[in-house]
Amino acid sequence: MSESVGGTGETFVTNRPQQPQNPAVPDGWEIIIGLEVHAELATHTKLFSGSLNEFGGEPNTNIDPVTLGLPGALPVLNRQAVELAIRTGLALNCTVQRSVFARKNYFYPDMPKGYQISQYDLPINVDGWLEIPAGQDGAATRIGIERAHLEEDTGKSSHMGGASGRIHDAAYSLIDFNRAGVPLLEIVGRPDLRTADEAKAYVSELRDILVAVGASDGKMEEGSMRVDCNVSVRRIGEGLGTRCEIKNVNTLRGLGRAIDYEARRQIDLINSGEEVQQETRHWNDDTGRTSTLRSKEEATDYRYFPEPDLVVVDPGPEWIESVRAALPMLPRERRARLVERTEVSARGAAIVVERGLDNLVVAAIEAGGDPNRTITHAEHNLAGDDAGRLTPEGLAALTRLEVEGAVTATQAKTLLAAMVERGPSADPVAIAAELGFEAMKSDELDAIVDRLIAEFPDDWAKFCGGENKVMGFFVGQVMKATQGKADGKAVTAALNARKP
Amino acid sequence: MPERITRDDVEAVARLARLRLTDAELDLSAKELDAILGHADDIASLDLAGVEPTSHPYPLGNVFRDDVATPSLDRDEVLAAAPAAEDGMFRVPPVIGEEP
Amino acid sequence: MNAVSALELGRQIRDGERSAVEATDAVLARIGERDAGLGALREATVEHARTTAAEIDRRVAAGEAMGPLAGVPVALKDNICTRGLPTTCGSRILEGWRPPYDATVVTRLAAAGMVTVGKTNMDEFAMGSSTENSAYEATVNPLDSSRVPGGSSGGSAAAVAAGLVPLALGSDTGGSIRQPAAFCGVVGVKPTYGRVSRFGLVAYASSLDQIGPFATNVADAAALLEAIAGHDAMDSTSIPEAFPDITARLGDGVDGLRVGLPREFLGDGIAEDVRRRVHAAADALAAAGAVVDETSVPAAAHALSAYYIIAPAEASSNLSRFDGVRFGVRKDAPTTPEMYDLTRSAGFGHEVKNRIMLGTYALSAGYYDAYYGTAQKVRTLVIADFDAAYERFDVLLAPTAPTTAFPRNTLVHDPVKLYQQDICTIPTNLAGHPAMSVPFGTGDDGLPVGVQVLAPALGEVDMFRVAAVLEEVAP
Q: What is the value of pTM for the model shown?
């Protein structure tokens, strides 16, 4: 429902950190981005009938009178689709409200009834927000969600014959209605995004939420998550510019490229004294350009009116609260949990959650692991796939060896790699012994440090005179003398302690 | 009530409704629709402030079906009743524009 | 005419006095002999009827317990989907279409052991009040061939009135069962909206459409309604409450029942002879013990205007599916948009196109509030005014139509006058209330007058009690 996006000209960003200049646009300009995401809901059957929610296989095998829009057919709403819509709405911090389905009337051969059943002025979810995790600049940002409503998908047209197989020069088209009637949740974001990276982070976060609550498989490349993108530009501090809606963005990378291209195009237009026309544009991933699909004047009059074949949906507090109580932990909460339990940065927490390592981290801490060493391994030394190769107890034991000074940080990294390679039964203590890693007693280190100071008096004098780079020389010498068994931090501490 | 329907209005709604009318049909329909809308003028003068619209005569809510599969229609039977079909799909002439 | 009622015929079949096949063959023979000049049926479903009847006979012979209407032939308005049997809605655009599924009412008739013998003629997509708007042929009034049978369910009314079939189903969006019942001198019932499933009824105006029975007498109509009514999970607007046993209450009489005569239904637009019959009916009810008094449903005066916005608006959307893509007729063209234009222009008749355009206009940007929005608010007022009247009365009594059956080829080209035919029936459709037409004497022209009994939502029992008394005392 693109007509409702950005209409108020208001921006809803909260706690937005000071934005650095977006390198994609000239100094003094900013991009205003609002996304509409269609997510296919993971139900067993269609939104309004009992045909299977499966497509992509043999065409027209999941069809019934409702799916085909045969005369006399009537829709009956799938309870599970409503449940998944509520789950997603709550996960997006929306208000779940009494909702009404409407008919959106237009003719298109893959839209069987000549109207799409969608929610219009009373959507099931309104006024929420999503937190995009901290990026390089280090702070998380809340992006407003205007609404998230239920609607049915269309069938699929294949354009046959002609030179390119594309719609423009096709000889005829073939239609498969297996996808018609599949439940969609259209999530309309407010125009709070400012850069291509933010837009990508938003989609990525939204996908993680949809997957977390079991609402959708969130596969953008396979079309189960489709993104339409509204882009306008303005000189910072001025009012909103005219926006264009970009369709046919099928990958996250494509989304970023399309936004930056479109912003440049609009700025160039304005700089050359022309006006941006409000229109729908098509992104071509091969050429890296957008082109006009439909001007505002060509927009259809959809003649929305309340769907008389369906009744109101009013979930009520009992249903809503039971859904809320059963929600799994969401990405935002998982990040917050790490920040709360360790000294990790917001960015680090985002990386660990993104990799799906946060549950391992928390379990390892609960199994007695050192919080900061555990999260450090997750942030720097582990990949998402490694979670299944480790047990919380193993990881906890590893960090205990570090804390006790039994192994150095460098040795711990080697040990961790060995544990991942050997799998869940690997015992870090046994591997340490096997590799000859052993405790370097602190008096042993002291002796070596004292010996080296005596051996290199000139260098020591420089160090004491404030030449800090000489520190590296001494650390290297210690490592050489101990064959790498010394802990770098302990060496630094020992050296500093001897400074007059 | 806004100004009643003109011949141009009728032409515009015919386009929206995907009907192609001859000039004679347009003239006739414009006359008849104007008469019908004229007859409906009485409700324009009613005081309807604070009156809620009714879209369903019998108040029901929360009518659902369980997420349980029912058998598909037989594709061959359905396609046999279609004006044109090919490779298990419904065939139509070139579509021209994208989905609105 | 039928020698016996539908219920008597059912008894004879159950008791083995007559076979269902004999009854069916007799009906098919009558259709063959008499329908040519009448045009009541679109299609006799001969093979299907004989197969079904034979199966009923086998079950009777096997000693199975059968319902009251098992083996009884019934005709269906041609907008009710019948699997494998033609369903045209009186339109060229569905010529030759055989639905791949049965309407819920068809499934229920089958469960009751009834035998579908044919599909009846109708105004195209139920838009009309004379059955002259069928794309195939006009139906004539069996009582006077110079008159219309009423509409849009004129084929069903005529088939029952002519004795071709003992029972038929129609659909009523603005009076399409009751007005033809009145014109043809039979009983016709529009149940409470949601009592009978709309699944498989080709929609005209979804929030107004309701399927109901035609019969020669009140008891038969009650029995047929009982066979098809009740909750259906395939229709989201289906009423969950169980349908009451009306048949058991038919003999209850009207002693103490409060009957209202609403002024708005008896005004200037109503012919004097019709008005006299309604007052006579009221007097008869009073004589039978009812408490009769005048009342008022003020907003009913605006119902017609609201209806002719709401019904076309819903129709314009409902009829979008007739696009030549998945079923029905297509006119070939070089592109899909042109194919739509040609198919729909050739497939729909003038009145259907008019209502589609009217509805499209009423819903279009800039006009929605003035037309559709306003009409829906008037609908609220109509319901409120009925509710107020039903605080004082159990039922209301009114004419079914302003006149007796009018001559053919008179109103069909004057939409506004034709729409006036529905002035007494439309208010109940807007309110979703039940109402039925019962023959009560004749007008000055000797043609039947129908008296309409109106009741509040779910008030079918009281409505039928009154109808049964009127039938008994009718002149």
A: 0.91
**C394 has a chain A CB within 8 A of its CB:** no
Domain of residue C173 covers 6-249
CB atoms within 10 A of CB A482: 16
> At A481, is the pLDDT very low, low, confident or very high (cuts 50, 70, 90)?
confident
Q: Is B18 within the bounds of a domain?
A: yes
| Interatomic CA distance for residues A46 and C160, integer angstroms | 42
C243 inside domain: yes
Residue B28 covered by a domain = yes
Whole-number Å distance between alpha carbons of C437 and C153: 14
Could you give all domains of chain A from N- to C-terminal order, each with its CATH number?
Answer: 2-324 (no CATH), 331-434 (no CATH), 442-498 (1.10.10)
**Which 116-145 residues of chain C touch chain A by CB within 8 A?**
none
Nearest to residue B39, comparing CAs of C209, C206, C356, C301?
A: C301
B80 belongs to a structural domain: no
Which entry of C77, C153, C197, C437 is annotated as an active-site residue?
Answer: C77
Of C245, C80, C64, C186, residue with least CA distance to C447? C186
Burial category of A65 from C-beta neighbours within 10 Å (exposed 0-12, middle 13-18, buried 19 and up): buried
DSSP assignment string, A108-177: -TTSTTSEEEEE-SS-SEEEEEEEEPP-TT---EEEEEEEEEEEEPP-EEEEESTTTSSGGG-SEEEEE-
Give the long-range contacts of residues B24-33, CB within 8 A, separation 24 or more: B25/C350, B25/C353, B28/C350, B29/C350, B29/C353, B29/C354, B29/C357, B30/B5, B30/B6, B32/C354, B32/C415, B33/B5, B33/C354, B33/C357, B33/C358, B33/C361
- Between CA A175 and CA A184, with CA A180 as vertex, the angle to 5 degrees is 140
Active site residue C152: yes
Tell me whether A107 touches chain C (CB under 8 Å). yes
Contact A73 C233 (CB under 8 A): no
Write the CATH number for B23.
1.10.20
What are B31's two structure tokens? 């006359």
Whichever domain contains C125, its CATH number is 3.90.1300.10
Q: Which residue of B has its CA nearest to C210?
A: B57
| Cα separation, C111 vs C57, whole angstroms | 14
Residue C141 lies in a domain: yes
Cα C131 from Cα C138, distance rounded (Å): 6
Q: How many domains does chain B have?
A: 1
Q: Nearest to residue A228, comparing CAs of A36, A7, A31? A: A36
Q: Is residue B32 part of a domain?
A: yes
Residue C131's pLDDT band (cuts 50, 70, 90): very high
Number of domains forming the structure of chain C: 1
| Full residue range of the structural domain in which residue B30 is found | 7-45
ipTM over 0.95: yes
**Strand locations in B1-100 (E):** 64-65, 85-86, 89-92
Chain C residue with CA closest to B34: the answer is C358
Q: Per residue in A73-130, pLDDT tens? A: 999 999 999 999 999 999 999 999 999 999 999 999 999 999 999 999 999 999 999 9
